[in-house]
């Protein structure tokens, strides 16, 4: 495999009053194991860092945990039928590491592996392409106790785990994502502490980021040695970053946040090096002595695809004591070396997460990655919005979410027209679920979940998305 895209499957065109996507465009939905599965202590599953974190008082809003979540572990067949009704062509899901290896290494928990075998077989029976994410934040607690991602050995354990999964499922799963959003794992988990495991140590967060990427590279090499024909990639959460003003100080603030939010991962994975300016920004935090000879060559192991999660734009400014910092993940310790940068609200519409709605930022991000980093096929592996949905007379008329998807899919269509090899889009999320430190207070789903009854109710956005998929097109405006 090389970092060269195959010939694009044709450009979309406006015809018959519609904006068409290329033939074969992959339409999907996405979830994560801890957010939906429940069954936290069933069939041999061990504890993860999110089990520990969510059961620690004060860590998660209202003390919510993922113990039951959407009960997907027991209801997966019904949820696959929901996807089939939507007409999706692919389902991106993650595998719970402590369900497969309760202690993070050693023998396989057969009951856990069998659950994913059944899920994959059910998806294929409904003509839905399985897209497997190996790690979506649920590190086995035993590995955290041994040092977690700041410890180099965790990268080796991750590669072993990936090899195990590839051996068991690689004959039926073609698409493999190693990591989901390593920025969150490293800097929210070990920097700001707002995610599991809840540590606040800037130097440890930098080490964690490196070892996550090292684990990614080792995993790709291990899996490709078994099945070179499968597709291997990683998913980064990327942001369009803009300065508040034209001042040199605000421009430097934007450079610094772009460095930590985007380039800290993009450059090692796709260029085999850390950006020099980012190393300079971090010189008071880390001397990067944890980086060994050969690490960056492993981290930049060639991929066959690249995933981008996009939710919002960051607008930043140089330090101003009169501007209040924004919460949740924008704590200064989540951006080591850039503690004085201010995140600025522009007063534009926001989602229930207080994230600004900025579809042009998705176009900007897709074009930038293609122009500056890689000609690989790209996939939007997550995009979506939380809104305070309510069931009224048995329906959920979420026009705000519908409009969000419409705007962002138009950005995707424009990216394709401009030459970006975008091959698929995964809506986040299939259904309302456990939203990490926000518990069950935020709803991202196309399908509404009543957490007491576990009743699933497709929202207006689900019906709209199903029609877009059926037509492989958006209505022209």
TrEMBL record:
Presence of keyword Hydrolase: yes
Enzyme class: hydrolase
PROSITE patterns the UniProt entry points to: GLYCOSYL_HYDROL_F1_1, GLYCOSYL_HYDROL_F1_2
The keyword Transferase is annotated on this UniProt entry: no
GO function terms (MF aspect): beta-glucosidase activity
Entry EC no(s): 3.2.1.21
InterPro entries assigned: GH (IPR017853), GH_1_N_CS (IPR033132), Glyco_hydro_1 (IPR001360), Glyco_hydro_1_AS (IPR018120), Glyco_hydro_1_beta-glucosidase (IPR017736)
Keywords: Carbohydrate metabolism, Cellulose degradation, Glycosidase, Hydrolase, Polysaccharide degradation
Catalytic activity annotation: Hydrolysis of terminal, non-reducing beta-D-glucosyl residues with release of beta-D-glucose
Catalytic center residues: 382 (nucleophile)
Family: Belongs to the glycosyl hydrolase 1 family.
Protein name in the entry: Beta-glucosidase
Species in which this protein is naturally found: Micromonospora zhanjiangensis
């Amino acid at each position: 495999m090389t970092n060269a895209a195959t010939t694009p499957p044709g450009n979309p065109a406006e015809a018959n009053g519609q904006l068409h996507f290329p033939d074969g465009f992959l339409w999907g939905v996405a979830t994560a194991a801890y957010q939906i599965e429940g069954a936290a202590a069933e069939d041999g599953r061990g504890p993860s860092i999110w089990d520990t974190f969510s059961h620690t008082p004060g860590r998660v809003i209202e003390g919510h945990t993922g113990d039951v979540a959407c009960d997907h572990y027991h209801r997966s067949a019904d949820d696959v039928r929901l996807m089939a009704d939507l007409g999706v062509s692919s389902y991106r899901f993650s595998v719970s590491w402590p369900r497969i290896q309760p202690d993070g290494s050693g023998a396989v928990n057969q009951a856990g592996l069998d659950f994913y075998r059944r899920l994959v077989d059910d998806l294929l029976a409904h003509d839905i392409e399985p897209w497997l994410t190996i790690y979506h934040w649920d590190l086995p607690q035993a590995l955290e106790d041994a040092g977690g991602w700041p410890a180099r050995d965790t990268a080796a354990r991750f590669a072993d785990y990936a090899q195990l999964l590839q051996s068991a499922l690689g004959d039926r799963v073609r698409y493999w994502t190693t990591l989901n959003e390593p920025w969150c794992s490293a800097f929210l988990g070990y920097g700001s502490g707002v995610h599991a495991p809840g540590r606040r140590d800037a130097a440890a967060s930098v080490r964690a980021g490196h070892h996550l990427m090292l684990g990614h590279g080792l995993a790709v090499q291990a899996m490709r040695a078994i099945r070179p024909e499968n597709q291997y990639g990683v998913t980064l959460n990327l942001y369009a970053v803009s300065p508040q003003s034209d001042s040199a100080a605000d421009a430097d603030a934007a450079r610094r946040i772009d460095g930590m939010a985007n380039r800290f991962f993009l450059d090692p994975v796709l260029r085999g090096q850390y950006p020099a300016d980012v190393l300079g920004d971090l010189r008071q935090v880390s001397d990067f002595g944890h980086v060994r000879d050969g690490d960056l060559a492993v981290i930049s192991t060639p991929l066959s695809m690249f995933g981008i999660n996009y939710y919002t734009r960051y607008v930043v400014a140089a330090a101003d004591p009169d501007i209040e910092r924004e919460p949740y993940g924008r704590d200064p310790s989540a951006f080591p070396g850039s503690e004085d940068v201010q995140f600025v609200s522009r007063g534009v519409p926001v989602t229930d997460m207080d994230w600004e709605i900025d579809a042009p930022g998705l176009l900007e991000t897709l074009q930038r990655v293609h122009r500056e980093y890689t000609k690989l096929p790209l996939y939007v592996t997550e995009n979506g919005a939380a809104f305070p949905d309510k069931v009224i007379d048995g329906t959920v008329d979420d026009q705000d979410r519908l409009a969000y998807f419409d705007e962002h899919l138009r950005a995707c269509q424009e990216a394709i027209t401009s030459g970006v090899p975008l091959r698929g889009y995964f809506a986040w999320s299939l259904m309302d679920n456990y939203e990490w430190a926000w518990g069950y207070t935020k709803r991202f789903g196309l399908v509404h979940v009543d957490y007491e009854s576990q009743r699933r109710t497709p929202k207006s956005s689900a019906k709209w998305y199903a029609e877009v998929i059926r037509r492989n097109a958006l209505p022209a405006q």
